[in-house]
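Ligand-bound model needed. zinc ion.
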Amino acid sequence: MKTELLFTPAATAQTELLAVFAADKSTSKERDAKPEVALLTADEAIRKAASYVLSTGEFKAEPNETLLLHAPEGLAATRLLIVGLGKAAKADPHAVRKAAGTAVRFAKPRGIRSLAIAAPDRDFDATHAVRAIAEGVILGDFDSDTYRTDRKDRSIQTLSVVIPHGAHRSAAETGLREGVIIAESQNFARTLINEPGNLMTPSILARRAATMADEQCLRYEIHGPQTIQELGMHAFLSVAQGSDEPPALIVITYEPEGAPAEPVLGLVGKGITFDTGGISIKPADSMEKMKYDMAGGAAMIGAMRAIAQLKPKVKVIGIVCAAENMPSGKAVKPGDITFAMSGKSIEVLNTDAEGRMVLADGLHYSKQLGATHLIDAATLTGAVAIALGQINAGVFANDDEAYKHFTKALETSGEKFWRLPLDDEYREQIRSSIADIQNTGLTRYGGAINAAMFLKEFVGDTPWLHLDIAGMAWLDADKPWTAKGPTGVAVRSIVEWVRSYA
Ligand code: BES
Ligand code: ZN
Ligand code: ZN
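Prediction:
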């Protein structure tokens, strides 16, 4: 997608579609209160073109509500699309990101390939507003129907962001640049996640990561089963041993000139390219979804891509443990004992709790490579979706300072994460009678916490955040602002978390 900034009046933008935002300024909390719709542009020609239809009251500026005007009088654009942001008090950059996505999702099925969006001119910092528009448009442009042979390319070719008079040029430029980098990186992660298991094996994931690293001039190493064995990553290997596909350990390093020796941020992702459950096999219903079990790993690869371009002055190591979880004559069995890289013995009670096995070694290795602060992302448990639904992802932290950095990151990313506990009392859930720990809890209660407690065994005192994105990594139905399929959740938050240390 080509992107540009226009420093001319929105009314003069020659485009197939000009989108402007509107908010409801009424402060009444009553459900049926009459909205007071306000266009977020001072452009007189646009206000005039929209004044009649707005006076009818049929457009209420609800979040992502749209109203289309053809051949609007006095405008160079052939269409004017008004997109609602909801109540003015809540019309923040996150509402703008979604509304910009809504404009794109509106345009695409109508065959519109280029659009202009008027950046809101009130109460908005230009960097944040333009960044939100760029992100919303690029994320909204993503579609997951890659393998339809009759697929029509309806991708948006040009986005023009119209900058209001008086806004700082450099602020708008920064917003556009950052928005494009971050959203394209999130879409890169979504592209990886969208691939089916036969076309996204651990080796293919490693190759895709390596290509990205080459393009971004990042150092990387890809290790196969032999090195993984030599490193002593037997927990990781126990997951991979049932599959004909060899595992891959992906290590990507970002070491900018002038970065201090510490902190070194370790990003660790679960890269299970397909999770059948192994011998503790999953039911057939919805098993196809388990192609997205590498979404945490993809998020890390996407984040590394963005970091390489945004160039924060902080060292980062990205690690993805990629494997396929299959049942076979060679597969790990319930009751088997394996020794993790850290030396801890693990009783494998359920081979479907494989994510924590690969992450145990990934987290330990990351520390060995020098990471002083850790963050992992994983589609780790169904239980997190039971606890939080499909609105919030789960976040666990053993360190309040690292968590504070993360909450700050969320303010910019706009992603929703809810903190869950890690009290010592939960530890007895994973106590094994034969080994140091077992890979599932004694009971099904608190399944997401039990999994996090397992990981905690491998991070020691190192400040650590664990993101359980199982409920948020895949959307089953379209939203007005984004397509169904892989969401790329966590990429933006991880990137902002990293930047918060620079
Ligand atoms: N990959 C799954 C978790 C998952 C579930 C991701 C739904 C996305 C959507 C994970 O490996 C798994 O199977 N976890 C088990 C753990 C259990 C055996 C303790 C689960 O959640 O049931
Ligand atoms: Zn599993
Ligand atoms: Zn899994």
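The chain has a mean pLDDT of 97.
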